[in-house]
Every structure is written in structure tokens, then in C-alpha cells.
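Good morning,

Attaching, inline, the C-alpha cells for the sequence recovery test we're adding to the shared suite. The designed sequence is right after.
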């Protein structure tokens, strides 16, 4: 196949023994020509190709959250590879990039996300015959080996005392029920914010989880490359298939939902026709469970701000108590996702099977279950009382 672009001199030739694949490659390149993004390989930099690749293949087809993740992943590697011409980038440069990010103490998983992005964009350049090979091919990120034991105070869960402190302060606030539901269902905050009343089955005591809410910047291409647009509030499908699930409801969750029904009804009665008029999601999602007093969508950032507010009150009290008792204060850090960690940890401590917990939490990999499980020292000590051994040692 042969592709021409006015002003670029020689045409680009594509070769493939498979006619179907060749037609697909030709169509992709013709698409680039049509939108004025036909690259000139001997001058195109990695920065330039990232902008072209994003505008042609990513922005029209992917969610804003995914695009935002791509942009953030590229920002980490831009200082090390962005200025290279595509044709001059080699495996040694990729290795230097990985070593540099490791030296900055980036987690292996974070480095892998950036490397995966770089591999994908360079693979497309290879498929379009812009570069002769993908320099990321075969390059891997090593995991950091550590033998340091985990610290008890670094566990991402709340114990009984911390939960009591949180809900004692939260009890008389507007969104008390929201945090109760987070604790008793293990939902992600975006899933809870996207919940509609039709997803709440009171009769069968179950939730149907099939979407998530977030606020993310939109991206588009301007004359200088990728430009960040205004933040948009959106409800989208879950990222992974396992996130589509049914979550059982206990008595605490049922009671919280029923109380919230009455709160929302009072809001509607108070604001009448003006309720939800400024909600951009109302036309498509008129039945959201959690809304503000005036009927707008309740966003995850609002829950984060409320957690920080309550955390500050708790820690200020702890500071005063520690001073009076002449001891070191034990501060806590609270955020919406910690209730999910706490829920899953309590499921494990309750003796539920790993398969059941994974299904309820929306995990497809048992490694994620281990990541979310933070068994308390008290629980471990009580469990150890079951230990028996019948071997004589004398």
C-alpha cells in the first residue's frame, strides 16, 4: 500500500503478507492524513507523537478519566524521552528512564503504568511504519524487594475506637447515612455517588452496582498540542467487568437508606420546582440517591472534604488529650476509600470465604483481596488461641 501527503515528498509504503491487516494499517494512516496529523518521521519527537496519538486514537474513543491517567503517566516520563526524535529512541533510553524513576522512589506499579503508556504509543508508531521497531519491547520493571515488617499504625483501615470517634462527630451531619453505607457495603465512593434508587432493592436487600461517578478534566487538541479543558461531571460504566455486581445489604445499610429517603423527600418539598435545576446529570439520571440539598449530584470530592473536616476535629481532640496525659498523640487519617478497606478487613475477620468477599467487593484477583485486608493485632492474637501442636519437644 502507498500513502501520499502533499508537501511531504516521498510517499509512505506499507508492507504486509496479510491483506486484511494491510488494509487496516492503510486505513489508520489515511485517517491521520485526513485530519492533518500525518507525521514526518525524521522530525517527529516523542512529545509530538504523544500529542498526535492522543488526539487521533485516544481522545475520540476513551473516557475522560482514562485520558487523564494517560496524561499524568506521560508527564512522569516526558523530561526523559519527550525531546528525543522518535527514530532515535532506543532500549538504552528506556532503561535510563526506568532507572531514573526508580531513583525518585516511584513505586514499581507507577513506573509500569508510564512504561505501558509509552509502549502503546510507540507500538502504534511501529504499526504505521513511522519507526522500525518498538524500543520498549522486552524492557521490564523490577519489583522492589523489601524485608521490613509492615507497621501496625500504617494499616489502611479504621479500628473500633476510630470508627466510634468518626461516627460520634458525624452523627448529626447531613451525610451521616452516606458514610454508614460506605462502611457496611464496601462500595467505592464513585459507585455510591452514581447509585440510583432503582439500583436499591429493599425487598431482596441488595444493591445493583453498574456505574460510577467522577469529575475529571476533558482534553482536546489545539495548536500547541494537548490542552486541558474544563472539568466535567460524568457517570460512566465501571472500569472492570468484576465491578458489575450485587452487594448484600445488612440492617444498618437498610436503615441508612430509609433515613436518606426521608431526607431527600424533605429537600424536594423545600425547594419544589427549583430542586435539581442546576444538576447537569438530572436529565439522564433523575433518580440519583445521594444529592445535595438543592438536588445537585453529590461528588466524591465532597465526601473527601467532609472526611478531612472530621479528621481535623478528631486529631485536635487527640492532641489535647495526649498533652494532658503526657504521651505522644496518635493521629488518624480518614478518607472515603478507607471505609472500603475497613469493610473488607471485617469480612475477612468474620470468617467469610475469599470467593464471597471478592464477589461482593468487585475484585477479580485474589491479590487485590490481600491488598485490602488489614487484620488487626487483637484479631490475630485471638485467632492464635486456636493453635495446637501435638509434637513432643522433650
Amino acid at each position: 500500500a502507498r500513502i501520499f501527503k502533499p508537501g511531504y515528498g516521498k510517499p509512505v509504503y506499507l508492507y504486509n503478507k496479510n491483506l486484511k491487516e494491510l488494509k487496516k494499517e492503510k486505513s489508520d494512516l489515511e485517517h491521520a492524513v485526513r485530519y492533518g496529523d500525518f507525521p514526518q518521521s525524521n522530525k517527529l519527537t516523542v512529545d509530538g507523537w504523544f500529542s498526535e496519538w492522543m488526539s487521533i486514537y485516544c481522545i475520540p474513543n476513551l473516557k475522560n478519566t482514562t485520558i487523564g491517567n494517560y496524561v499524568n503517566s506521560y508527564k512522569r516520563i516526558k523530561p526523559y524521552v519527550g525531546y528525543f526524535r522518535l527514530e532515535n529512541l532506543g532500549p538504552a533510553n528506556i532503561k535510563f528512564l526506568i532507572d531514573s524513576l526508580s531513583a525518585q522512589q516511584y513505586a514499581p506499579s507507577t513506573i509500569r503504568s508510564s512504561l505501558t503508556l509509552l509502549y502503546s504509543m510507540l507500538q502504534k508508531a511501529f504499526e504505521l511504519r513511522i519507526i522500525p521497531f518498538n524500543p520498549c519491547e522486552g524492557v521490564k520493571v523490577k519489583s522492589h524487594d523489601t524485608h521490613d515488617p509492615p507497621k501496625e499504625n500504617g494499616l489502611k483501615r479504621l479500628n473500633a475506637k476510630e470508627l466510634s470517634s468518626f461516627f460520634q462527630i458525624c452523627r448529626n451531619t447531613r451525610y451521616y447515612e452516606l458514610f454508614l453505607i460506605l462502611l457496611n457495603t464496601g462500595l467505592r465512593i464513585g459507585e455510591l455517588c452514581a447509585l440510583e434508587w432503582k439500583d436499591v432493592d429493599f425487598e431482596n436487600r441488595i444493591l445493583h452496582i453498574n456505574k460510577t461517578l467522577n469529575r475529571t478534566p476533558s482534553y482536546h487538541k489545539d495548536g500547541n498540542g494537548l490542552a486541558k479543558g474544563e472539568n466535567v461531571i460524568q457517570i460512566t460504566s465501571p472500569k472492570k467487568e468484576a465491578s458489575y455486581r450485587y452487594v448484600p445489604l445488612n440492617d444498618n445499610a437498610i436503615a441508612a437508606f430509609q433515613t436518606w429517603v426521608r431526607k431527600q423527600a424533605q429537600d424536594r418539598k423545600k425547594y419544589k420546582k427549583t430542586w435539581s435545576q442546576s444538576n447537569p446529570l438530572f436529565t439522564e439520571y433523575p433518580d440519583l440517591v445521594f444529592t445535595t440539598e438543592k438536588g445537585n449530584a453529590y461528588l466524591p470530592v465532597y465526601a473527601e472534604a467532609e472526611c478531612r473536616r472530621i479528621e481535623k476535629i478528631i486529631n485536635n481532640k487527640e492532641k489535647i488529650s495526649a498533652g494532658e496525659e503526657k504521651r505522644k498523640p496518635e493521629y488518624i487519617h480518614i478518607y472515603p476509600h478507607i471505609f472500603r478497606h475497613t469493610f473488607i478487613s471485617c469480612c475477612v475477620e468474620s470468617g467469610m470465604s475469599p470467593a464471597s468477599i471478592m464477589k461482593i467487593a468487585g475484585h477479580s484477583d485474589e491479590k487485590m483481596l490481600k491488598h485490602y485486608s488489614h487484620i488487626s493485632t487483637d484479631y490475630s492474637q485471638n485467632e492464635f488461641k486456636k493453635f495446637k501442636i501435638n509434637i513432643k519437644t522433650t
